[in-house]
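W.,

You were right to be curious about this one. When I first looked at the sequence I had no strong expectations either way, so I just let the prediction run and decided to look at it fresh. Below is the sequence, 387 residues in total, followed by the output.
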Amino acid sequence: MRPVTASRIRATGILALLSVALLAACGGGGGGSPEASGTLSFTACVIPEGGAACEATVNWSTRNAGAVSVTVDGETLAEGTSGATPLVLSGDVVTVALVDGTTTLDSARVRGPCETATAWDGSRCTVYAVRLDERANTPFVEDGRAVELEVVLFKPAGDGPFPTVLFNHGSTGDGSDPSLFTITSVSEPVAKFFVDRGWMVAFPQRRGRGQSDGLYDEGFNADRSFYSCEREIALAGFERAAADAAAALDWLRGRADVDTTMMVASGVSRGGTLALVHAARRPDVFLGAVSFVGGWLGEGCGDYAAVNRGLAVYAAAFPGDTLWLYGNNDSFYSVAHSRANFDAYTAAGGLGEFRVYTRAPGLNGHFLANDPGLWGPDVEAYLGALP
């Protein structure tokens, strides 16, 4: 059993909240009597390493409802017009429903998330990686103090050196919620996919994100209430992010467990576009780049087309093959817009493949990285073809 550290507890708690929140977003409302309504909510739990289940809490309330029950995969868990009750969750997804007679008022698909660096094997949460929470030195100084970046590593067992993916996180929606800035952003599905294939994955947190030092300033409007939609401000924010990615890369290349001859740039959303440009700027380091739903400004945000297309054209300087992965039903970047960016990239001389996937009904394509069952075969083939 690995020691439990404060950083692991923090990351695990965030993971639990995100897992329940993302799955709960799949829930639907009910029909029936228009006077009856109700909602479900959940207090998360985390399945520990080697564990088979954890105990969450389901809360519910209703209005103008009569014969109310809470069911799990059709079996009654509790009854009453409102209340809270324990809910034992394994790593398998179950459907929790709030029912009034034969009418479903609310429902959600939930599971017990595994502790970080462990994954559900069908019966329990088993270790798939060694997780390290590190601090990377940088050349930056803010308010007279040296800036360090938080870098989370997921690595295979052993000393290495390992081929390494530098994975860049995305934004925080429209930038209007500062509480999201301090959440350490990692993707366990991405980490597990690469670690299972012998790669180490590094998740650097850019300045002001996660537990990194410094100010988060990737293109805000004057009062910092939202991300700016103006081209010049957005691109200045991009360059700040690119400087952070470059600092993280320099730190990574100094580690003994990194195979500096086998490195790939990757990332999601803003991080996907950042990875493509980073590879173009450091073709001496990166063998390839994999962009998950890449883009810098969401559609409808002022200069989005000029910014996203311009960065795609810039990235075309990378001499190797790249992989662009997108999902239907993406709330930020439509397939048509992303395909146009890719076409501009190839017209400028860029090499790569563009792939589109469809997640389960009702799921947002922007969170495609959560579904390695969709993109895994294409990424595996891409890795296998690297020089």
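Here's what jumped out at me. Confidence is low (pLDDT under 50) at residues 1-32. And, maybe more interesting for your project: The chain is about 25% helix and 30% strand.

Coffee later to discuss?

I.
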